[in-house]
# Entry
Amino acid sequence: MNALADSVGPFPSPEVHTVNEPSPSGIAAETPQDSDAARLRDLGYQQELRRSLSVLGNISMGFAVVSPVVALYAVAMVGTTIAGPAWIWALPLALLGQCLVVTVYSELTSQWPLAGGPYQWGRRLLSPSFGWLGGWVWQFSVMFGNTTVAYLAAPWVFALFGATPTPGAMVAVSVAVLLGCMLINAYGIKILSWFVSLGIAAEAIASVLVGFALLLFFREHGFALFTETLGAEALSGGSTTMAFLAALAVAGWAFIGFDACVSTAEETKDAGRQVPRAMWWALLSVGVVVILNAMAVALAHPDPESVVLGEDIDPVTTAVVHSFGSWSDKPFVAVVLVGFLACAMASQGGAARGLYSLARDGVFPFSRQVRKVNKRRAPIGGLIASTLVSSSALLLGLNATAIGSLIAFGTAATFLPFFLVSLAALIARLRGSWVPNGHVRLGRKGTFLNVLAVLWTGFEVVNVCWPRAILAPPGAPWYQVWAGLIGTGVVLATGLLYLVAKRPQDKLRDGAAEPATRPGAHGAPAELAAESS
# Structure
């Protein structure tokens, strides 16, 4: 079963035959899998990936990528160093901003439940050129996000064995993490789901149980601590505002993985209904856990000033060991490491499926190789390509520890496609060329929320890309300070050059997408009220 290589125009939707019990009318009932496959054919593709995920499986993929462990434990030290305990107020603000993005994504994925969402949506909303460029940017943002997750996992490997990492060793372990995740992903979506479930179990221990225990039984400080910066603003020239903006840039990293639910849309049953719900569940559940844990760690830490001064580079472990005793050190590190590895696996799987979406249309370099699916119906070509790209970006970490720079790098690369998708949706709405007609339709409220999503993501792109020496280690090379801007600039520039030189947009026809304003599409009656997630 091969997808079209040069055209993605809609196929005629053939009659679907099933072997189910007859309906009262005497006609065999259509299962969700049948309607999903038919919908995919309507959009120009055959079902090549294995559609076996339930809504819970899809939520698990999103939860693992957003990941409370990765979200908080990666940024707690950086946030506290640059803004003190008061940095925690950046978290609910970033979560609220990302909820605006999910409202836009929900309407889009309910109408076009396809892997490689930003690419597929952009070409239908505005033009093949915009869609291709948006897909290019999104694809590299996910791969660079994988780089960041693998690099952030490496210190926990060294902590587990009591070793002191060097920059070169950090990069080597990060590459090993990426290769291991690629091998597991190659065994298909069922094996990946099993490992993701293991990661969620680790999350339940490391985030939920430990977090609530710290908050309820081991508090060392009062809640007034969250009104203090402890002098951290000195790193920002004494400006509390600039310190908070830097903290907001870091906090954005905590809530960027919900689009992994979209990446597995073609492997999810009843995707048009369930993927929007899964995004909301993944983002909000992680958001609540991250904010509660951030509070718990700060309140249970014996000496927050040591974190601000840079003397304690792992405040989470310090708070846990101080509260539970030295016996908890290695078990806690092991559980956190499992959470990081599950996040890396799920994120890499999403990247591979995005590459598959581009390559099956013949619009990505080396498409013939990248679009390959193995006998386990896993996108093996995309897995290999994404691992190579993610590994190459680890060069940032060779000369000095680069955690702050890689967080800025990964976050900047991710917020740019959020902005591009939100902008494309808003332009299409205002033109009248797109009226949402999937299972999620928010009407005028959707337009208002779309405007806010554009404002939020545009602001955060600038905020994250802003070069800040405080996010890089002392004496770090200039390219680590400018990591966010360099990453987005290189991706945009290479994408534009490829767009001009190879003209991949010519393989996509403007008429390929179904009419975006066709009422009652996808089995949703025209009078259907907006269905909230």
